[in-house]
Amino acid sequence: MSLQIVSREAGVAMEKTAWRTALDPETTTIAATAGAARLLILCSRYSLPYRVLRCAAQDGTVVFTMGNDDSRSLRFSRYCRGFIETPHRISGKRCLQLADDINAAVARHGITMVLAAGHLAMRSLVQLQSHINVPCFPMPTPAQFDILNNKWSFSRHCLAQGVNCPESWLFSGIRELRRWLATGRLPLPLIAKPLDWDGGHGVRLLPAVGWEKALDKVEYAPIIVQRWIGGEDIGAAAWCREGNVESFLAHRYQGGVYDAFPDPAIRDSIERILKPLATNGVFNFDMRRDAQGQVHFLECNPRFFFKIALAMEAGLNFVQCGLGRPGAPALANPVTVRRPAASLLRAATAARLDRRDLAHWAHLWADPLPYLRETLRIDWDE
Predict the structure, then answer these.
(1) At 183, phi and psi to the nearest 5?
(2) pTM beyond 0.90
């Protein structure tokens, strides 16, 4: 699929067209724009952008998507008005030709806001937003993105703000790390991670026994290692404006069951992290809660997150927050959303399917082809 590219001079001229004059160029929302919002989602990969697409289209917003061949299956969604394949790789780098592609799509389809879904797409758009002819979804600046996205700088920032995180060490490569482990200078077990990969890729447990074999699977540098924290995996998501948390929920996901719940202490910690940066956008945090109930912040995803559609079903649509239609500040009570296998397993016991189980099935079958393709692993990001 080809994409008509417009020059930067032509893009400047387009700002004077009727659809552009409906927008205040200084604003970061589209709530006051006449008519239905028309969004363009810049995508890297498939699974996360699809979930963002469903959140964006919840209220009838018109949504187009743009990406490379690894995002092409988004065209199967009935909520995608059109998929635009750009010949320029969405690699997380500052590519001005990609900005031209975006502006061409903005002009052709009357787009009123551009947002990014996926780690590389967000990194690219953060660097290109000053070159885009319409507002972008509120995002951190490039400097803020790098502080929060980099696991080492994030841990340093947390400690500076008095927020608890695991003891951490940074190594230039595997040889240096191996030397420290061989001489007993690090407390095992440990978790080894790349600095800025997403989706859990590259995360390795280095156990007290057999760490040498586990270390052989570490194929990246630099390496951050963190003290292992026993307990449960939890997370939290926040919509933030100028460092102030306006919408928030904490969550856990296990065995196909998504539990969303209020937690004022976690919310306060997140605001301590974000407020000094005076940043904007949606942020997701991975944490561990230990046996004593203490929460340890592990990393931050300064972008949309994989469970965002489940959060929408629980009652908070974080995409709509940036469109000028924020949800409640926080959940009033815990909410559970069950994936199909979990709800069927529950139905096989004495418990019955509840209203949210049925609503989740309705959500999936409202767009059946993507659901079936994901179930069959035709479209899935490993």
Answers:
(1) -95, 5
(2) no
